[in-house]
Amino acid sequence: MAVVRKARIDDVEQIYKLIDHYAQQGIMLPRSRELLSRIIDTFVVAEEDGVIVGVGSLCKLGDDLVEIRSLGIAEGYKGRGIGTKLVETLLEEARRLKIRQVMALTYEVPFFESNGFRVVDKGIFPEKVWTDCIYCKKRHACDEIAVLRRLD
């Protein structure tokens, strides 16, 4: 059974490898080890028997908007509720920060819909566009779907 917890600096290498697996497929933005070390406090991990089997982070984009990013599950661990546990933990962090809107860009729309998100137009997130999208090689032909969940 995977346990979700805040990431620690000694998790960087395993987080890097998990993110890189998805980045190599072009479905997640790559993150360097150096960057991960600097922003490790924004990450949560799912750990099972000392191995990180899931990862996700929360990035503040504005006073009332955060993004779930770098959400991924290791091969062989999908379909076990680990992604939902990670999302629930990140939503709790958003509530703790008193932020009411949580967004993500994803290819996994059904997963996010099952976790209370709804599909929205990417154009409503200029904060995201100017924070990350301008650096993405897909920026002019982005095929990710924007999802949003409002917290009460």
From TrEMBL:
Domain N-acetyltransferase: 2-140
Record has Nucleus as a keyword: no
A single GO molecular function term of this UniProt record: N-acetyltransferase activity
Record's keyword terms, sorted: Acyltransferase, Transferase
Cited CDD domains: NAT_SF
Keyword Acetylation appears in the UniProt entry: no
Any one Gene Ontology cellular component term annotated for this protein: cytoplasm
InterPro entries attached to this UniProt entry: Acyl_CoA_acyltransferase (IPR016181), GNAT_dom (IPR000182), NSI-like (IPR045039)
A Pfam family it matches: Acetyltransf_1
Family matches, as PANTHER family: ACYL-COA N-ACYLTRANSFERASE, GCN5-RELATED N-ACETYLTRANSFERASE 2, CHLOROPLASTIC
Cross-referenced NCBIfam families: PRK07757.1
Protein name: Acetyltransferase
Organism of origin: Insulibacter thermoxylanivorax
Taxonomic placement: Bacteria, Bacillati, Bacillota, Bacilli, Bacillales
